[in-house]
Amino acid sequence: MNWNLSTRAKIALDQLPLDERKRAERFIASLGAALRLSDLGDKIYKLYSDRGEQLFVGRIGVRYRAVLRCNGQFIDILEIIDHDRLERTYRIGGIR
What we know:
Layout (H helix, E strand, L loop, with lengths): L1 E4 L1 H9 L2 H16 L10 E4 L7 E5 L4 E8 L2 E9 H8 L6
């Protein structure tokens, strides 16, 4: 699949600790090698969007996640975010 890294995701990637950055780079490489998101198995799950977009979350490691938007064979990596912040920002993982 083809992918695009947003400016926000580039900045976040540059700010990650070295070991987490390597994990993120491996995750991005696996996106490029996959024919579709389902090939990545349990590392990807769908995120609810009230705007009708196909948003997904990709598990980079224990702490970090990538927010993805899928447009057919093209994936936009919107942001790389800490798991706790993801829950607060996108209101997932519990009763709000």
